[in-house]
Amino acid sequence: MSSPALHEPFEAIDRQRLSAALGMWVFLASEILFFGSLFLGFTVYRSLHPQAILEAGRETNVVFGSVNTAILLISSVTMAVADKAAERGLRRMVVGCLAATAALGLAFLVLKGLEYREDIHEHLVPGPDFKLKTPAAQLFFGFYWSMTAIHAVHLTIGIAAVCLFAWRVSRRAFDFTASAALPSLGLYWHLVDIIWIFLYPLLYLGGRAP
Amino acid sequence: MTDMTAESGLTAPRSDTYLNHGSTLWSWLTTTDHKRIALLYFGSITLFFFIGGAAATMIRLELISPNGALFTNDGYNRLFTLHGVIMVWFFLVPSIPTTFGNFLLPLMIGASDVAFPRLNLFSWYLNTVGGLLVVACLVLGGVDTGWTFYTPFSSMFSNSYVFLAVAAVFVVGFSTIATGVNFIVTVHALRAPGMTWFRLPLFVWTQYATAIVIILATPVLAISLALIAAERLFGLPIFDPQHGGDPVLFQHLFWFYSHPAVYIMILPAFGVVSELIACFSRRQVFGYTAMVWAILGISVIGFFVWGHHMFVAGMSPFAALVFSFLSFIVAVPSAIKVFNWTFTLYRGQIYFEAPMLYALGFIGLFTIGGLTGLFTASLPIDVHVTDSYFVVAHFHYVMVGGSVSAFFGALHFWWPKISGRMAPDGWARFAAILMFFGFNFTFFPQFVMGYLGMNRRYHHYAPEFQIYHVASSMGAVILAAAYLLPMGYLTWSLFRGQKARANPWGATGLEWQTSSPPPKHNFDQRPVVTERAYVYHPDQESPRHEEPNAREPHNPQGQRG
Amino acid sequence: MSRNARDGSITAWHLWGSSALVGVALMLLLGLTLWLAYEPLAGWNAVASYTIALAKALLVVLIFMKLARSPWLLSLAALAGLVWLGTLFAITFTDYPFRQVGERIQTIPSERSQGADARPPGWTFP
Predict the structure, then answer these.
(1) What ipTM was assigned to the predicted interfaces of this complex?
(2) The CATH number of domain A15-39+62-125+145-203 is 1.20.120.80
């Protein structure tokens, strides 16, 4: 009854799946600290320069931010469905949901790129001709660019992995029902989504209220 | 099942060991066997140890004269930065986990490999990429920021290859994260039947605790370095004081990794020494459970003390008090370990073979390093000795006297298992003693001159310190010889050494249950564990005297197959 | 055929039902947080934003990432990350609020007097 997905050094597929999930969660714990330290830096500056940070926060484009949040949340739904479909062995549904997930991820990146273009046009890149006069306002945009860029890198890796799996599942290249690869990829994708869930109020909602 | 013929069966030379299972270069570069990956890491680590060591040699050469005769100021800055970056990230942090950890962890818990063998190989390639980046940085001209990359110098002013160095450390950080993930899952998922948590050898516990520290600390370093790169390449103001940024914030993030990194370096050494002390005094480890809790305690509390590197950096006095207090707390579990090793020796049958000499040397040197750590943890003394050679001596006692001694102890202890040959014990003892003396000769004078006011990172100094620097440099010659000697006789032993039996030291532990060197899949039959670790003698009885060449095999931790 | 089709539709409901519900909840929360961000809540806007973000994250973690139905070991790994992050925050904030005058962050004096950031730099106690 051994599945082709079972590989050394494991002797049972359940244990292998649990181990893959644990390995991914351990990595995600690492990722929490990775992004968490960025949030720490932001929080420190927010406490040191509250007015300047809020003033700068009003400059981001809330439309792009909100639409992108919605896109990522929907992509998490399709990813979750892909995972469930894989458990039931529904190959075409898995491929379809993964393709939708990757497409939504790409849409996010495209919108992000358009937003970046607008930001550059509006002189929101820290430097001598920065839009706002308050020095500490540039700190906000230092974090805006680094955080969104690092998030985009994570998302790009996720999209590439999703495409790869969709392709392999559609080619019937591996036993996707038994393999732990898809659930692990799902965990990663959802974490990238969660990071954005916290980036959204941090970068787009601060200082909007009158 | 545990008949005596099994032992002789293991002693007979076999042809299907992991070493001769495929001999092409390709078979090594694509291997997923944890033992072969350990040997690949041995190669990388040895290379970087010698690059870092060459830098150290030049530093000691330069410091013989108080006038800075050999290097320009800038050249000297690049030299000690190179020494620090390479020794910390390319030797000390990966040293014991990626070599002995990779080799022994699956063997000690009775598994056939680590949980994710391909990830394991991938981590070595990441390590190699990081290594190439740092070598490129070195060839192009190096970095002058010090291994700590403090902003704003590193991000705004330095005219050296900061980005390359930062990228190298970033990449190699992810390589250790991969190893950490692997170790945690391996210990959770792949223990042999009967191998409960409190039957694990202490070496396994330390690898597990180290992996936890790696997982939770390294990402913060990665971010702090990425932010430097962002500030340097794209001019984003992150730590820039002109825009209200805080350079001390970088130090918080950097030391949130780099203090626990000290425990990444020393915890595996604790594990090694626990194995050696137990085996060569034929005693059960005193207070096994306390040892386990001390290991876990160090790995947790070690995260709460990072600020003691920043007492004079402009931190709030309240934070300094908190960090000082917590730094004293972390000394408690370390002291528990030292006392327990000492009690393990008490009434043991002690063999002064080479691995034991390294282990005993470790205890002495680590104790000095640890106690001087308490000096620097207390605020008033630290204000006096910050950035002096006192601090340099302190951390070299812990990292070189501690970790490197343990590394060489482990190398001699498990050499028969890894290579299938015995190291020549006479030479090995000589090297161990030489290392102990050479080390103290090199670094003890640094305590004195540091206390008297010699600053670190300067190559021009007041002439009254010359006597200490000359003494230190002379000691460094002895130390270098002690490091080079094993290269010679261990290589010799590969060809001419006596063939090793499966369990030459009569040690407990599952790794001694398989042949030397082990077959590709580690065990011919999966071991079943029936007792706790280190049962060298029955409870309530002292260990009996055993002749060195007739030590009892002690049927390690249960039944064979 | 019809039986197969009905099975298919049941499967589709099982597949999509709960996930779509969570998705709808996430969208409602997104709308709520966007609306609240523009309401004058006298300083409570940030609290509202991050509470809603936390709620969204919990939905994703517990249901999409299946942590609610997974062995405790996986939750332990996640908790370790959160606890250590909490430690990083907690101990770092023994520093900034308690800085002495000379240790506080200063921006360049000429720009400080321009009004936008006229309040004294550094932390002030409420």
Answers:
(1) 0.94
(2) yes
